[in-house]
């Protein structure tokens, strides 16, 4: 009469197929130990469950790492950073100072600097679309952000101009609902437009 099959080996395979990686790994190890000590059958099932569990565990770990990195890459910056850093446009908030204005077109990464350092632009207003809003089209998105983008007379007389950044269709699909209004100068500015300390050079 053949020895009985080890139940934990079967459950290791089942949980591995169900993508319960860590559970399958633990059950696979337990099954192999019991098979060795009790002389039961099911080594192949335990090994298969162990392999599936390891693959599932690696996939789970990769997903978690990806989610953490995505969260870090989209987390809003402080209004004024303490040191220069590269940041994604979706991280900018009112007060962010940008070292150089990128070329026209979709903006992904910019260099953000402390506002006390020379920079070419500063986010002076932001417009947040409703989270459940329907994509309005690129032109309409820019127009809506532009309506919230107003400079005062002194800024315009000093040669400051406004540039609007609106979510792209791709960014909108990924959850981006923030439009930005930047005060831009032809040279550089030190200080902030928001507290009146801006000095053009």
Radius of gyration: 28 Å
| Helix residue percentage | 40-55%
Shape assignment: elongated
Largest sheet: 7 strands, antiparallel
The total of beta strands comes to 7
Head-to-tail CA distance between termini: 93 Å
Unreliably modeled segments = none
What's the multimeric state? Answer: single chain
Q: What is the chain-wise order of helices and strands? A: HHHEEEEHHEHEE
Q: Count of helical segments?
A: 6
- Mean of residue pLDDT? 86
Brief digest:
By secondary structure, the protein is of the alpha+beta class.
Descriptive notes:
It is a single chain. It is built from six helices and seven strands, in the order αααββββααβαββ. The chain is of the alpha+beta class and 201 residues long. Strands 1, 2, 3, 4, 5, 6 and 7 form a seven-stranded antiparallel beta sheet that branches. A hairpin with an 8-residue loop joins strand 6 and strand 7 (199-200). The termini are far apart.
Give the key terms.
single chain, 201 residues, alpha+beta, seven-stranded antiparallel sheet, 7 strands, 40% helix, elongated
Protein topology:
Layout lengths: L6 H11 L3 H18 L4 H32 L10 E4 L8 E2 L10 E5 L5 E10 L9 H10 L5 H5 L3 E5 L3 H5 L4 E13 L8 E2 L1
Antiparallel strand pairs: 1-3, 2-3, 2-4, 4-6, 5-6, 6-7
Helix pairs in contact: 1-2, 1-3, 2-3
